[in-house]
Amino acid sequence: MGRFLLLDIFQWFAVIIGLTSYRVVDDRFVQTRLSRMYTLIVNVITVTMLPAATLDLFNSFSMGFWLPQFMWITPYVLHAVNYAVIVHTLIFRGHRNIIQMELHHLSVKLNREMGRAGKQMNSTLRRLFYLKTLTLSCMCLWHFLQSFIFIGVSSLSKILGLIIINSGFMILMSIVHCYFVSLWKVAIGYDFVNQQLEELIATRSPLISRYAEELRSLWSLHASLSLTAHKINRIYGRQMLASRFEYITFTAVDSYMEIIYYFSESAPAISKCFGISFFSIRTIDFFMADYICDLVAQYQSMPKHTASEGVMSNELSSFVIYQNSMNLNLKICGLFPANRKQWLNMMACILGNSAVLMQYHLMMSGKEEKYFKS
């Protein structure tokens, strides 16, 4: 797998926004007293100052020219949900650090095994990581530009408030990326095991002691990957349930607000384009978080169609049976699976909720027109 510069950059970025106090130094996952204190201070500032900064933003940036008066509470509900998820994310930071440390040790072992075998990362997984990193970067950049260009700054206090708001938003986006990267590393491990196992199955001679040792190593690695995947699913379960609730709330409310904003004549055209682009990019970003779950389950028990072509020893046959009988069922808090089908169901729910908001908007708009006419 090798060292990914983008992974190191994201780790530093996570430290800066207070998502973790650990960083990677010479293949070691470490935290210092300074980083621990810095992260604690950033977390306290974010939790205590974010509500005041958001209220100050609402007071200074009026939405009355495009958002109907009877829907004044809509952005407050949206940001209240965002704040609750941010607080939950920061409270359970220690639990995520534990699994991240364990995952780092497993990644170091996997790097060593892949280097010894001369294997490279699957191109599909590489492109998927690049795409996920691109969507995260675009969302953070969009939110930063929206805050400092379209809203504008007039004082030092407003600049500090916008920094806190942007930091909170980046925490919401980055925690989903952490979940994605964790399962992405597990998928790399499964793919390596599958490649090595295909080579062992395809051999035309009986397994010698060296191959038997290789098989035991692969079996151990596969079991470690499965155990780590279950731990990731358990530790990130409540977090991803909260993030999914935040995403549903954001998408349902924001799609309604974007429609109203889009048909507002006084709204700038470039702002409309930014809004539509951000909505689309975040949809793709969250889809990949569910897609990686499908991919991990697929790699974990990938069928061995070449099993009958080579020489099968008892050990190799047992491992193939063990691998094909495993079923990695990644459920969010044991409630529902995280996969592409569930993502489509979620999007259908979002469209339904957005339609309800639009119906309410049309009904109230009609009542207002009748009131003014009378």
Shape: globular
Strand numbers in spatial order across the main sheet: 1-2
Our estimate of the beta-strand percent is: under 5%
Count helical runs.
11
Question: Could you estimate the helical fraction of the residues in percent?
Answer: over 70%
Radius of gyration: 24 Å
Q: What count of domains describes the coordinates?
A: 1
Q: Major beta sheet, specifics?
A: 2 strands, antiparallel
User: Average pLDDT value?
Assistant: 78
Q: pLDDT under 50 segments (min length 5)?
A: none
Structural class category: mainly alpha
Termini distance?
71 Å
Instruction: Give the total of beta strands.
Output: 4
The SSE string, one letter per element, is HEEHHHHHHHHHEEH
Protein name: Gustatory receptor
GO biological process, one term: signal transduction
Function: Gustatory receptor which mediates acceptance or avoidance behavior, depending on its substrates.
Subcellular location: Cell membrane
Descriptive account of the structure:
With 374 residues, the chain is mainly α. The chain has one domain (5-61, 74-352). 78% of the residues lie in helices and 3% in strands. It contains eleven helices and four strands, in the order αββαααααααααββα. The chain has helices spanning 5-16, 33-60, 74-91, 93-117, 123-151, 156-202, 209-235, 237-262, 269-300, 314-325, 340-373, and strands at 23-25, 28-30, 331-332, 336-337. It has a two-stranded antiparallel sheet. It is globular, with a radius of gyration of 24 Å. The termini are far apart. Keywords: Cell membrane, Membrane, Receptor, Transducer, Transmembrane, Transmembrane helix. InterPro entries: 7TM_chemorcpt (IPR013604). It is a multi-pass membrane protein.
